[in-house]
Amino acid sequence: MTSTTDTSESQSRRFRYWQWRTIIATMIGYSLFYFVRTNASVATRVMLEDESLGVNKAQLGFIFTTLFGVVYAISKFTNGFIGDRVNSRAFMVTGLLLAAVCNIVFGFTSALWMFGLVWLFNGWFQGMGFPPCARLITFWVPPNELATKMSVWNASHSIGAGLVLLICGYIAAHLGVEQTGVAAWRWCFFIPSGIAIVGAAGLWFALRDTPSSVGLPELSNAGKKQTNEDSAEFRRFLRERVFFNPVVWIVGAGQFFVYVMRSAILFWGPTFLGQQYDLDIKSSVWMTAGFEISGIAGMLLAGWMSDRFFGGRAARVCVVCMLLATVAVLLFWLLPLPPLAMSVLLMAAGFCIYGPQALGGVITANIVTRRAAATAIGFTALFAYASNFVSGWGIGLLAEKCGWPVVFGALCVVGLAGAIVFALLWKTKPDGYDDNA
Questions:
Q1: Phi, psi dihedrals of residue 86, rounded to the nearest 5°
Q2: Contact 156, 31 (CB under 8 A)
Q3: Of 24, 294, 365, 413, which is most buried with the most CB atoms under 10 A?
């Protein structure tokens, strides 16, 4: 006869297996969303060199970053509501497939208005990526482990963006009109789309939904059952814990400044390194990818420090990270440096900026509890991606009118403002589960 202890140990092993399977599968899946959006960073530089298109920095910045960001923010917020109510596996796979289709259509397009229309749809479908991940992670990871494991998961941003930058850098250098008869920027949309479609199929087989869907018990402190999510009580819960919660609003404001700095460097990196420092496409792509990849170590360290030394008070780590990121950007701006030293400073900036980028979601998810995590993170995304007015069209226009050095001075102000906003949460408690009880 099987003892209670043996049954408990068996369940514990199965839970850990499914917990890490969910984390890894969603990491890979969300990385692939970046394959069909960050590819625009390299494509922008190549498109600006294609005189037949007749486009400029402000136009492409508006389409790829500002227009995309506004639609993406609205989609992420709207799909946060949906993501708290539907099967996460089906929702995420559908979004990835539709985003890949948009990229394929974009690759066949040449008119500016069609670029905008197709990328608008891509922004909406991209918003179907994060909400199911937020829901899955909070159902599989307890609050006292969330900062560490969410930081591990958050490496998906940098893995996806870094890999697609390198892939598209190779495409831009070797698959142009002379080699294939097709413009290199079009291949920057076709090839990542194919990879994303294959990945979506794998994601369907790898993912499941909540622990109960595989015969495991739900985590403790789960709050009230999810069956009443359309009730008046749940709507009151959302009003009080999400929409009228000052912590959520402050996190959103902090994420605005985080995303201005992150998106400006990530999107414009290959272009400003080429135009300001006359670096070739391969060098500029590797340097921008270094900014992303170093962010993996930064977010892992930030999450570990939050749980290990700050008692889960992740906002304190965000303050330190934003100040250090500002120093790195300031040195990049002011010092005349060789390419290797510039790479080191860009990597330092990425190392620091991805801590707050990851921990913003942790603060939000813990304070509103897993019952409304996707909704609350979707709400803060409205602030985060409103930043694309600045990092896309604004930076493009500022670079056209004033030059790239002024852009980096502006980013230093942005970093300092972000540190001040996160400092407002210095004394905030780690989570809201006691309130929920």
A1: -120, 175
A2: yes
A3: 365
At which residue do the structure tokens 């605005």 appear? 256
Pair 425, 247: CB distance under 8 Å:
yes
184 closest CA partner among 41, 34, 43, 39: 43
Question: In whole numbers, what is the pLDDT of the chain averaged over residues?
Answer: 85
CA–CA gap between residue 375 and residue 241 (Å, rounded) = 10
Q: How far apart are CA 44 and CA 273, in angstroms?
A: 13
The two structure tokens encoding residue 305: 């420090």
pLDDT tens digits along 55-73: 888 888 889 888 888 898 8
Q: Cβ-count burial of 89 within 10 angstroms (0-12 exposed, 13-18 middle, 19+ buried)?
A: buried
What is the CATH number for 68? 1.20.1250.20
Residue 425 is given by DSSP the state T
Q: How many C-beta atoms lie closer than 10 Å to residue 12's C-beta?
A: 11
Q: Over 90: is that where the pLDDT of 270 sits?
A: no
Q: How far apart are the first and last CA of the chain?
A: 37
The pair of structure tokens assigned to 165 is: 């930058």
In a domain, 4, yes or no: no
Residue type, 300: L
DSSP of 293-353: HHHHHHHHHHHHHHHHTSTT-HHHHHHHHHHHHHHHHHHHHHS---HHHHHHHHHHHHHHH
Range of the domain at 412: 12-210+229-436
The span from the CA of 295 to the CA of 245, in Å, is: 29
Indicate the DSSP class of residue 225. -
How distant, in Å, are the alpha carbons of 135, 164, 323, 423 from that of 306? Answer: 21, 30, 16, 15
Token pair belonging to 319: 């303050």
In a domain, 218, yes or no: no
